[in-house]
Amino acid sequence: MKAKISWLQDLCFEGVSESGHKMILDGTNPGQGASPMEAVLLGAGGCSAIDVVMILEKSRQAITGCEAELSAERAENPPRVFTSIHLNFVVTGRELSEKQVERAVSLSMEKYCSVIKMLEKAVTITSSYEIREA
């Protein structure tokens, strides 16, 4: 996997992935794009939410929505690394099995999400879920 980061102006950069997708990263707050740490947090949420949806679809659950609400704590002093991350999945569907939703979240956190698996080596990561009827 490859990517390229190009300076645009001030603390604003454009990132381009190997597949051609673009993302603005900005070190000012608020800036024109996500900060690099926000992008890491979004990556964790996106990776795990993809897993949850795929697992629930494969288990033939009538899922109609999935949100990952993320909260993170950072160290007070530089480098201001994440010290903890919590993901709360809000899964919407028709007659969803709580057992299947719990299984999907657990499998993502413990086995499949490569971003979570990488981050958990340095950060305390927890998860929870809510089920809502569609």
From TrEMBL:
Protein name (record): Osmotically inducible protein OsmC
InterPro entries: KH_dom-like_a/b, OsmC/Ohr_fam, OsmC/Ohrsf
Gene3D superfamilies for this protein: 2.20.25.10, 3.30.300.20
